[in-house]
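Ticket #4471: structure export looks truncated?
Reporter: QA, pipeline team
Priority: medium

Steps to reproduce: submit the single chain below to the structure queue and open the exported record.
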Amino acid sequence: MSGQTFNLLREPWIKVRRRDGVVTEAGLLELYERATEFTDLAGESPTQDQAVFRILEAVLIRAMRRHNFFAPDSDPVDAWETIQGAQELGELVNKYLVEHEARFDLFDPVAPFFQVADLRTGKGEHPDASVLIPDVGPGLFSTSTAAARSRLPTAVAARWLIATHAYDISGIKSGAVGDPRVKGGKGYPIGTGWAGAIGSVEILGPTLRDTLVLNLPIEELLKDSRHINADLPPWERTPDSAAPRAVEEVHPEGVVDVLTWQQRRIRLFPSTDGKYVEGVLICNGDKIQRANNFADPTTAYRYSSVQSKKAGVDVFFPKTHDPELTVWRGIQSIFSEDATEPGQDKKPALVSQLRTDLALPIAQRYGKERTMLRLTGVSYGTQDAVVSSEISETYPVNVRLLGDDAGQLRDTAVRVIQRVMSFRGSMSWFHKQLLVCAGASPEEAPTAPVQAWLSALETEFVAWLSYLGDLPDPQDAEEEWARRMIAVTRRFVEQAVDAAGPRAAIGRSEQSEAGKMILHSSARYETWIMSKLRENLKILKGEVSAS
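Actual output as written to the record:
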């Protein structure tokens, strides 16, 4: 890396969306200076945006530590209000960045950003730049031909470099000279990037500045104040070599460390003019400890009864998002009450802190603003060596719904989700019986109609979450959901009965063990499923009709 330069502070490379909807690029200095003018990141993929956002959050935390926003004796409410109201915040962050400007050059010959300058294999080979872009289905991230992707504009490569550290697949990597773990020229699997092992939860504010402030784990940062000197990002540490921090897995030193985790060692090979990246070498980096690693405030943690029994202590792993039930399982996890007993899952620290004294000032500032929750993650397949799909869902959840005052509404939402998940089985059985009525003998129920029903119900659920933002009476909220679920379900049931046709309407008879003749007809099972729906919703006194 000689002669070329790309300064991430001053060159435009982060894709952002302005308030007027226009997408543009900004360098780090411009981004923090104009953070109130941008609404969100707008890169090539949701996971890329999430990876870049983690870096932006880490920069903000380090800058505020530099200016003593997290003094050990600070009150969390006072600290948050000071940060939120700091007019000079962008200026302070940029002052911090300029102090470390030398470490933000993408092609620095000694300490290139997020890379190892002399990384190489024994044969001195490396693939072209296309290896930075995940292969998820035909052309999912492609804005150009495969041939054009063999070299990437430097700004694009910078974004994908960060995303690769966060979400890279597992599998065999190129063996780096100087890595003691390499065998036969190969680096054997040490797992995916850390962000790929978690289900990220992000609170979105009206501007990018608001989002950065809303996602500060204030209580965690004050709690970890003793470890400030160790909790450093790569640009404040001695530059990495090909060797890992340790041969075995490593526990992060704190929030900043985990937000900027280097699960890989990477080297970019630029064109002679520095305008493109033509080659990339990706090798193994620092293997992160996954069990009982609570450093990341953006993810929930699931209790593992099997591993806990084996280890003799409570063991938790980061909780990932279910790609098929993201809204249901994600909101259920976030809205459930804090764990009070051993063996219960833990919510993201970002969410838990909204049920402390911080809830009031945050609600006072953002309770009437447009705030949302974004869930981001990756689903891997085949030993985590391929990306099956990206998960990115955004829901209209007002911050007031996450505070103590909205506990009953959250309970209502959790009950609603539990009932939907329970009723899935009834809908599945209903569709199987329609096939029986028409003369078929299916071993399993068809999945497509149930999934279509669930998808339509999800749309209603998201709209209902928006309705909850006005903090209605919990009983009214439950009845409103019942109306929505009944309307959707009735429509799908009627469509299914029509699609089953005349043969299912006529039905077929069967003699029971007691000798009684039973008629299996679509009309019978239509009545049955609507009765189960009334039972599921616990409708009383005809207040909400399911007929």
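Status: closed, not a bug. The export was complete when the record was re-opened. Leaving a note from the reviewer for reference: The first helix runs from residue 28 to 33.
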